[in-house]
Amino acid sequence: MSKVILDMSMSLDGFIAGANVGKEYPMGVNGEDLHTWIFSTPKDKVDADVEREMFAKTGAVILGNRTFEVGVDLWGDVPFPVPSFVLTHKKRETLIKKSGTFTFVTDGIESALQQAQAVAGDKDVRLMGADIAQQFLSAGLIDEIQINHVPILLGDGVRLFDLGMKNIQLEKDRVLDSPHATHIHYRVLKGGS
Amino acid sequence: MSKVILDMSMSLDGFIAGANVGKEYPMGVNGEDLHTWIFSTPKDKVDADVEREMFAKTGAVILGNRTFEVGVDLWGDVPFPVPSFVLTHKKRETLIKKSGTFTFVTDGIESALQQAQAVAGDKDVRLMGADIAQQFLSAGLIDEIQINHVPILLGDGVRLFDLGMKNIQLEKDRVLDSPHATHIHYRVLKGGS
Known about the structure:
The structure is a homodimer. By secondary structure, chain A is α/β, with parallel strands linked by helices. The first copy, chain A, has 5 helices and 12 strands. The first copy, chain A, has a 9-stranded mixed β-sheet, sandwiched between helices. The first copy, chain A, has a two-stranded antiparallel ribbon with strand order 2-10. The longest helix of chain A has 13 residues, at 45-57. Chain A binds chain B through residues 12-14, 29-30, 137, 145, 147, 149, 151-156, 159-161, 163-172, 175, 177, 179, 182, 184, 186, and chain B through 12-14, 29-30, 137, 145, 147, 149, 151-156, 159-161, 163-172, 175, 177, 179, 182, 184, 186. Strand 9 of chain A pairs antiparallel with strand 11 (168-177) of chain B, so a sheet runs across the interface.
């Protein structure tokens, strides 16, 4: 069964996007600084390896409706070249894009996960969006977390880990460092505490 | 002039103490997990080096009144063997402890900083407490930040970096990793953005 991965670029103060996310600021104010490790030229070798691995391992994506609405024009495609599942409250026909499809799921995260795992094969199911991440974490459905720790303080924005979650034990099993980001990989320990 | 250092152990979700900090839980619920890197036996060599450096470089401490009240009995002394300055609203006589003094400062952070720098010599002035950290950061008075990133999700507690701060540029200049913590050192870039 494919693993469920949360892989996010996060500022030192815990934000995965800046303030005022919307069509004008898809990553929020200053939020694009979170992805310098992906978009800088020349690209650092460590960052390039991490990015390559991220694409190679992704077999399906689950994202929230807000992330979809802000991103769909920007990407002009699916965010990764694999089937994408959008968690939403509004039924909608599947949307076919160049490198994959957006399927709209209205019956909750477990249904989305089931559908994503059915197509991901031996690759990972990747989550996108803070709200989706928190829902999956609270439900104990995340296997691995990779945080690309970015050395900036955004001051305001979208928090990845918000108040009110459970205490969750992790095991850090890899640290890769570049000037733009420290990529730390964690396994989520289950049934422990 | 001595530098102003913020050096904190922080969970992946941004907490430097658990929920319900008080006499019963000085570090908050599960908050002691943040200091496994200091208190585990045997101690990891990386962690031991980081701790030794932390003590060797500290010339004075500035802390908030809440940190003082929760900690004073627990420490049975000053938190570091150097002069400590407590920011408070209530005037109080200097308290003499075994390895240093608590001086109570009622006229604001700049006064506390001046008094701390006067005694720190060529060593650092170290800040303790999230509230103090946020006040000094907002005032642009912090030179260096060391975050001991601890691989746990506490779920709730005292946030180090709270909403409403300014966007602040950092430069990561050292990463030291142990199984218990990833110690990342940042310089605060000033007058830039």
